[in-house]
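Hi support team,

I submitted a single chain yesterday and got back a structure, but I'm not sure I'm reading the token output correctly. Could someone confirm the output below corresponds to the sequence I sent? I've pasted both exactly as they appear in my results page.

Thanks,
R.
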Amino acid sequence: RRSKRFEDKTVSTKQLNVTLCKSLNGRLPQHQACARGLGLRRMWQTVSVADTPENRGMINKIYYMVQVQEQ
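Hi R., thanks for writing in. Yes, this is the structure output for that exact sequence:
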């Protein structure tokens, strides 16, 4: 019997464009880690990430530093 851990998860085809609008300097270390986890390194950099609950959670944590657009 297979556990739920091995069930196939559908991969979201939606993408989100995330732009870092405020500096990471002086922010909480956890917020800096969220920005790095999304692939943001410098101000005004835009990255495209998959629309998953994990990425949404990181975006919600640093909502005050980023702008988000759906593709």
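A quick pointer for reading it: The mean pLDDT is 90. Let us know if anything else looks off.

Best,
Support desk
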